[in-house]
Specification:
Blueprint (H helix, E strand, L loop, with lengths): L16 H13 L2 E3 L3 E3 L8 H14 L6
Antiparallel strand pairs: 1-2
The structure holds zinc ion (ZN).
The site of zinc ion has 8 residues, from helix 2.
Length: about 70
């Protein structure tokens, strides 16, 4: 095996760079906390709407799929 290359984003990102930044911030600010069930760091059930959005953005980058 050779040395690793610094992979950034594979292919063409579907979400904008700002969306990805926001998603990272959201995921960082909303860590899941498992108590009895999944609870978001912001206090709501996990995933909360913001995490759901962030996940959508992430999924769009990894697996581009145009929304209707
Ligand atoms: Zn949250």
């Amino acid at each position: 095996m050779g040395e690793r290359t610094d992979d950034t984003f594979p292919g063409e990102p579907f979400a904008s760079a700002q969306d990805i930044e926001d998603a990272d911030d959201i995921l960082f600010a909303h860590p899941p906390r498992r108590v009895v069930r999944w609870l978001c760091g912001c206090g709501e059930d996990y995933p909360c709407p913001e995490v759901a959005f962030a996940r959508l953005v992430k999924a769009a980058v990894i697996n581009p799929d145009e929304p209707a």
